[in-house]
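User: Please fill in residues for this 184-position structure.
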């Protein structure tokens, strides 16, 4: 009986020490939710007022699409990839935003950082986006488009004004909606 009591006391002490260490660790480290909420460090380097870089990429049909083809219009560039879970989580919100602002003359271009053409085309088929989609099949972190636009996170959306200059950027469709509301 004494042995069982001793083992029980030792188990309680071990738990107390372990729980105390976890509590100290939790107090000394920032909460993951705090870090997740501060996404400002992922905003593109290309700032509002900057001239938009040239963008020339192919559609799934192999037709070259140029950003310059949309001169004089508001254009939302939606940077994404089919392998990106955060991008996929935003698809419905982006579609909803498109439905609200496209009747006002806002154009959208989906710029994919996919490197697997079959995965990209399958995603496009599943999602049935109503706006043009382009891709050059170069990985995101190695892509000259990503570098030119200063993309650090996907999804990222960038608003290009009718003057060809960056009017702002957002990491979510909701934030892009607010930006569009302030510009239109």
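Assistant: Residues filled in for all 184 positions:
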């Amino acid at each position: 009986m004494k042995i069982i009591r001793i083992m029980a006391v030792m188990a309680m002490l071990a738990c107390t020490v372990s729980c105390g260490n976890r509590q100290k660790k939790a107090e000394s480290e920032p909460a993951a939710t705090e870090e997740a909420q501060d996404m400002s460090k992922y905003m593109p380097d290309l700032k509002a007022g900057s001239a938009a870089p040239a963008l020339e990429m192919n559609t799934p049909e192999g037709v070259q699409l140029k950003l310059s083809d949309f001169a004089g219009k508001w254009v939302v560039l939606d940077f994404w990839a089919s392998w990106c879970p955060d991008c996929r989580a935003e698809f419905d919100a982006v579609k909803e935003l498109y439905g609200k602002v496209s009747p006002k003359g806002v154009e959208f271009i989906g710029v994919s950082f996919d490197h697997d053409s079959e995965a990209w085309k399958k995603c496009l088929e599943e999602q049935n986006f109503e706006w043009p989609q382009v891709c050059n099949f170069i990985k995101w972190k190695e892509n000259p488009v990503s570098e030119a636009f200063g993309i650090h996170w996907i999804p990222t959306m960038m608003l290009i004004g009718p003057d060809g200059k960056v009017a702002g950027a957002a990491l979510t469709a909701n934030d892009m909606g607010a930006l569009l509301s302030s510009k239109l």
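For context: Confidence is low (pLDDT under 50) at residues 1-36.
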